[in-house]
Amino acid sequence: MRGFSYNRDMSEEVIIVKGPTALQGSVRVSGAKNSALKLMAAALLGQGASTIRNVPLISDIDIMGEVLQRLGASVVRDGHDLLVDTAPVDSCETPYELVTKMRASISVLGPLIGRFGEARVAMPGGCQIGARKIDMHLVGLEALGVKFSVDHGVLVATTPEGLRGTQVTLEFPSVGATENMLMAAVVAEGETLIENAACEPEIIDLANMLNAMGAQVSGAGTPNIGVQGVPLSDLHPCAHTTVGDRIEAGTFLTGGALTGGPVRVEGIDPSFLRMAIMKLQQMGCTVSTGEDWVSVERDPEVPLSCTDIQTLPHPGFPTDLQAQFMLLASLAEGISVITENVFENRFMFASELMRMGADITLDDHHALVRGVEGLQGAPVSSTDLRAGAALVLAGLVAEGETRVHHLEHIDRGYEDYAGKLASLGAAVVRVPA
Ligand code: UD1
Predict the structure, then answer these.
(1) Ligand 1 pocket, 134 CB below 6 A?
(2) Among 100, 89, 146, 116, which residue's Cα sits nearest to residue 6?
(3) pLDDT for the residue 123
(4) Which ligand 1 atom sits closest to the C-alpha of 104?
């Protein structure tokens, strides 16, 4: 058992890939980053010691641990179990230096309001992928009776008349807005209906944990989520296991598709990846699935086929797999059009990939990807979490050495990425720069 603090500095390390190098074998995915972060925030409502299992060893989790500690919680990690005791929480303020490191810190807003009727959260920063506003979070919470003001960069929330159930239609099925609203609505007086809610598997995971704590949430995973509010005193701590990370799974499947595989990814419900699996099949891969695994293979002598992809909220194609599939498209026969509908500015990866020989034309939120014969190894920089992971994969099929810099992005969301790729047989090492 060890204490918990955010103290990583791995910016001086690089991942070196000597290509071409194939992936083959089985790999187990970690728990979903995007679930575990919100489950940690939800623990605030339990006012006691909750255990969250299958929590990935990644830096975003460390930051959320710090956020909870600053609020007064005790957070202790034991391997992949996290013991979060929120009984001692006596502050409802989340400081600037943590919120600016990770946008998901904003997910304490809903549970803090639920628990204390007030919150002070610095306005968020996070990934450099577009404007990433929080207006929909605010609209949803306001409908529940929350009043907001901004005090020197800090968002101040109060509930002068308490929280009351309501009906809200979200303008867009925002994951973060759905979650924040859900975590406040569970203790609002009366019934809440969230229409056009996000349907991501991580929302179902959050609702399952809230229900295990005594909340009454129904319909999670569909666009209509119903919440019957309960008194805060009815909520209690619980033990909950985080679902597998579908994006980590999709990343390893992309690696298998690139090099031929077979690569089998374990610890993931295949239904979370329906659209990605369909695209892999369209591109010429053979995909097999079991209860909690997915495997991919293809004849590496036959080129991948081109396909068009547009990112959309779940169950559409996930934006968090867009870079990985842009890589596949860049080696496919023909022209693929990739349309990014979820975030602005999420094509930074393309320019790094072009330095390795890809042929990509960007036009606003469309990328025209003309398949090339091969890529060349090069020094490249992770521009964000998923781009970083995809650049390492590009190194697998590139001729020569690829050095991937700025691993702090990859460390935000992938536990032991280089180690897992090496366990699949890839010539990948992580070393001091
Ligand atoms: C979450 C995930 C992220 C994933 C994304 C979409 C976490 C920690 N992150 O991010 O990995 O890529 O879902 O699947 O779970 N928007 C607004 N106003 C709002 C809220 C969102 O304009 O109030 C916009 C955003 O700028 C973005 C789009 O809506 O363009 C989607 O955002 P959202 O679904 O909220 O994503 P996140 O919860 O931030």
Answers:
(1) yes
(2) 100
(3) 81
(4) 8
